[in-house]
Amino acid sequence: MTSLCTILFTLPLLFVCCSARRTYLFPSIEHKTPKQPLQTSRPYNLAHRGSNGEFPEETAAAYLRSIKEGADFIETDILSSKDGVLICHHDVILDATTDIVEHQEFADRKRTYEVQGRNVTGFFIVDFTWKELQTLRAKQRFSFRDQQYNGKFPIITFEEYISIALNASRVVGIYPEIKDPIFINKHVKWPNGKKFEDVFVDTLKNYGYSGSYLSKDWLKQPCFIQSFAPSSLVCLSNKTDLPKIFLIGDTAWRTEDTNQTYLEVTSDAYFDYIKKYAVGIGPGKDTVVPAVNNHLQPPSDLVARAHAHDLQVHPYTFRNEYQYIHFDFHQDPYIEFDFWINKMGKDGLFTDFTGSLHDFQEWTSPLSPGMVKKP
């Protein structure tokens, strides 16, 4: 990339794209007036990897856009570089969402590792230092989405992601996932015997994140911690009282650490166990309401049983494109939102299009005048 800077004026905040490390400008973290508090009266609008329906996922642009659109929480996946820097990136490989293949200096870095019980080949984050990762640029994962921002934004660190939330003019929560902890702990080593979970929690504590769900401290700086690995949630429960969400995959899925089946981890007995460490579950939406040939089938009792165990339910992922909306919703994301919020009783929704979900909620369950969201 050349040193010429490109000014993106599609957002009211300024993004400066150039070869220098900082490719966007943060506003001051100091605010002269009290921030609008987090709304807790309706299901949470969870910005899945930011507003990644518009910008490349897990970039500063995607997170800033989702905050402007009304997200309650910005969600991210946390991985680690070879030298132990925590970064925001979904895949353990760089192939799908960065320009790594254009960097011939890294052509010999392709590897095959076992990840969650299967062999994966690609350019793995754990084989690159943070300095090397800074030379890469993000690209849109899906070919049917806007490609104009490819190559314009870098990978960001966990700390930069946190600063985006803290710099918002209203209270915006964070929702980090400790991603592939078994794999990361195997390939990355930190000083003094620390593990991924230790460094993850230390970072949150350094920025003042603490408190149980809806406590005074939590409402000041809201945070949910999520993971597909139940052993990580148990480990984290001994390090922080921040609320945790146990993520659940499809019905053919097994946990990456304990090798438990979907049926095992959605049993009443397991809900009794996990609620000691977590405040909720995050299932794939098609595990809650199955679909056959893109038509909905009768809902499972997963939501009712989770609620009976005092567990919140935050399903994923809601996307506006026709590829992801079942025929029953007539290709209309607002009909889908209505079904999941008003009929299925969800407590929060992970969406790639935070603006659409925010608009739906403002139309159907607007906040009181004192709680109107501001970007």
| CATH class annotation | Alpha Beta
Do you know the CATH topology?
A: TIM Barrel
> How many H/I helical runs?
13
- What is the end-to-end distance? 31 Å
Structure write-up:
The strands form 5 sheets. Strands 3, 4, 5, 8 and 15 form a 5-stranded mixed β-sheet that branches. A 4-stranded parallel β-sheet has the order 9-10-11-14. A two-stranded antiparallel ribbon has the order 1-2. The protein has one domain (35-92, 134-370): TIM Barrel. The protein contains 13 helices and 15 strands. By secondary structure, it is an alpha/beta fold. The protein is globular.
Summarize the entry for a quick read.
It comes from Chenopodium quinoa (Quinoa). The protein has helices at 60-69, 130-133, 158-166, 181-187, 196-206, 216-220, 230-237, 262-265, 268-274, 285-288, 302-308, 333-343, 354-364; strands at residues 6-8, 15-17, 44-47, 73-80, 86-88, 111-115, 118-122, 173-178, 225-227, 244-248, 280-283, 291-292, 295-296, 312-313, 348-351. It is α/β, with parallel strands linked by helices.
